[in-house]
Amino acid sequence: MRVAFFSAYHSGRDYQESLPALGIGYLMAYLKRRHPSIETIYCRTERDLLAARPDVAAISSTSENFDDAKRIAAEVRETTGAKIVVGGPHITALPHTLPRCFDYAVLGEGEQTFLELVELLESEPDPAESDLAKVAGIAFHADDGRVAVTAERPPIADLDSLPYPDREGLGDDWKVPLSRTVHLITSRGCPYKCTFCASGRLWKSYRVFSADYVIGEIEHVRGRYDPREIHFFDDLFIGHKGRFRNFCRLLDERGLQRSVKFRAYARVDLIDEEMADTLAEHNFHYVDFGIESYSPRVLEYLGKRGITPEMNQRAIDLLAERGISVGVSIIIGSPRETREEIEETYDFLARNRSKIDRLGVGLLMPLPGTPVWEEAARRGLVSEDMEWDRLGIDFESGNISRCPIMSETIGRGEMAAIFKKFNDLEHIVNARGEVRRLTEENLRLAAEIGALRSDLDSLKGSRAVKAALKLRQLASHIRERKRGVFPPRFP
Ligand code: B12
Ligand code: SF4
Question: What is the pLDDT of residues 283-307, one digit of tens each?
Fold first, then answer.
């Protein structure tokens, strides 16, 4: 049996393809381990998926890309006889809307559910409703025409039982060339429940891979890619304090932080002096967090309970003082946010602009499965048959003309002007941050080249040849860098 995977993306939004889809990497690795006779293929483009002629087409989709996922599913249906399975955050939030172009949906965490479904399809290409009903965590089209949703599947209790994601299967060219960066996801979910965020709900319970597992995965990716930077794309890498302590202890024992820089996501209420020191000592060179707003009222609406504007300021200061490169994201356009409050947030960012290297400005977006979605649906701003790409913004242009506007006080035209102003600031901050990053990288490369040059001058025989080869490697790395982009979060 041949299973082909595809991650739907918006062709006009390059940023969406900036990182490999590790979720699919986990699914592929799990299938390979548990059922090695199944052939797994990752298809980077729609054309690859059609050409793969799979028995099962497995499509991952966020809300914003769901119409793209439907379109490609319809094409696969027309040209191949494949069964089509959809998974990911969108269908997990709205399983009862499963469109006809998909045969099945895998809801939430996919490894065990998908394995069971594929095994069922292998033994019975057109399984009976009674057999499908036994697979927990799926949705399918029942004989009476309704969408049936089976029992909820319990979360995987021991994440360490999972294999590392199949990065090789996803293709090595994903590796972001700039500074040789690899990303890891070392937890599932988030202990908090901000009202705008789909993640806390997608994963049901917050779980972490152990510190030993994470160190093992770091060693694994170092062996294969020799990265200069490792980015933890967890929602909240420091969310489990005990795991973070153990992780730092293991880093110290092996000295890994001496040869690789880390990037992680945090929450301001978890950053005190001690945490900032620990992050700096362990080479967490980039730390990002959502400050969302300078207004306590807006913070409360967004579910950032216990967080104040002063805490946001303190976290920025504590990290910047230690030379850590700070990234922040904000959200404008909450229903009752006033012009003055938005202006205060802008002033806050402008005041801090020399301390911030990355800025992501978002418009409050009603993502399915969140309280903000429910409110937007009640107000008629969104619906289950809407055009899903309206939930996205083209970050380059900052065009929000088709997005739902949650604000009750500011109209679309004025909001577009405000958003543009923030977007301009975003471009300036990010360009400055990129200059800092390139400058640091250049200094590092210059030092490395200097050391090698003096080695070459003083060495003879095979050691000189080795140094010459290293020098050539560095030169090619510098050439590669010209193609590189710093992978953002979802701004
Ligand atoms: C890293 C990340 C990115 C990276 C990499 C994206 C990628 N393709 O993996 C980048 C920066 C590129 C990115 C981009 C975007 N992201 Co993003 N991203 C994340 C983040 C932080 C982690 C994703 C991850 O790797 N999780 C770990 C793996 C194991 O989980 P997973 O990918 O969900 O896959 C598991 C299950 O969902 C399921 N599954 C998933 N797909 C499928 C498919 C099949 C067939 C099956 C059987 C199972 C299955 O099985 C997997 C294993 O258990 C999540 C938040 C989160 N914690 O999940 C947001 C998140 C997924 N992103 C989000 C968004 C909105 C986006 C963008 C649309 C942003 C934008 N405006 O452009 C784009 C879309 C990109 C795309 N092509 O899908 C939202 C989605 C919400 C929603 N309802 O749509 C999330 C939930 C964050 C949030 N704000 O709430 N993202
Ligand atoms: S916004 Fe961040 S802290 Fe809030 S629920 Fe989402 S991941 Fe967790």
Answer: 999 999 999 999 999 999 999 989 9
